[in-house]
Predict the structure.
Amino acid sequence: MAMETLPLFPLNSIIFPKGRISLQIFESRYVDLIRQCLRDQTGFGVVLIEAGNEVAHKGQKLDIHRVGTYCEVVDWNELPNNLLGVTVEGIKTFSIVESWREKNNLCVADVTYRLNDAVDSDPIEVGDEFQEYVDLLKGLSSHPMVEDLDIEISFENLREIAWCVAELLPVSNKEKQAILELSDPISRLEQIELYIAAMNQQ
């Protein structure tokens, strides 16, 4: 499987394909990265921080999870605080083969893409056994917070159902990362069902 070198944006949050997240960019390494992405019409990888902080500190160790999501900028503007605001959208997931830091402290990695876990992957029909998730998403999609993200959901594609339910599920980042690392949508929904059952028992 072909590898690609990808700049990384380590965060204390997770994004799935089709999901969106808004970011405030103030560190020069990321301002330069966003400018380059806009100029070249390319993207970057979002990965969950395992240990460390989003803001770089000299000598600080940064550990990241090994599965993340390739994202592209879909909107940007200058915020009232003069910072750069961007909205990014998840496109496909990847696995990190090797990662390192450049001289400007930017994280970079050689990655392989999980081609069955991308927005252009062949859709999977939603069976009757997963209809409850369709109904759940239809209810959630009218919530103001979800509407603000302007996520387009295909209710006929099981991949998108699994991505979106996982994106909106109120569980910890550690639990969401476990869902992200399962590239099969049925496995994802089965894991989500276990989390929902555990929440209902609390």
